[in-house]
Amino acid sequence: MNMRIASTPPAIAPGIPEAPAPVKAIEARRKRPAASGEPARVSAGSLAILPEAVRLALQSEPEAADDRSGARQDA
Amino acid sequence: MNAAATPRSFGDWMNALLRHYDLALPAHQEQEVYSLHFDGKPSVHFVKTPKGDRVDILVEADTLPTLHAADKLLRLLALNACHPCGHTAAVSVQPPSGAVLVWSRQRWATLDLADAANLVQTMLDKSDAVREEIRRQSVRPAARPAALGRSLVNSLREA
After folding, report:
1. Structural domain of B102
2. Which one, A25, B7, B60, B150, has the greatest CB density within 10 A?
3. What residue of B is the nearest CA neighbor of A49?
């Protein structure tokens, strides 16, 4: 399994104090080819590694897709 | 997942799921987000909820070209019907971007690994259905014969 640390560099702009922090993700890729329905690789890290649409959705509607059976158990 | 194999933490559960897929991360420290990447398919993201007892599983299926296409939105709503796997996976649209997400929230501690893998497959299938519906051309419904008849009678009366 090939493993590496992927990162995107921060935007370096002299004079602008709020450069975004580097987005670091741990990644692992499988050695053998993935069969149908199997993931080829995994990445993990902070919320910052998520696509923007997914991150915004989590921030704006955290209960939107709540599992109904779970909600009943909580009640 | 049986009682003996009950994971102690979200990180344990995710590592078990990764082993199920023959994947393993180098670091054992629990992460906030785990993303599975498939060839030719959208990625599936696993995010621990703030309380920590559940996991949000999300797929960014596609983006709506316009938020004012009611027919497309109605067809996407129809995809929210229950699936035989028994787990909820909702299709939702995020304004203003129009991103269409397939989203499920589950208690990770009681979600069997095989069930989780089935749910991931269900969400990818639903994501394919979303893309198919978005790419389908909008078709204006044909006028009903009775309405056409009334229109013709009215035209004749006016003449």
Report:
1. 3-158
2. B60
3. B33
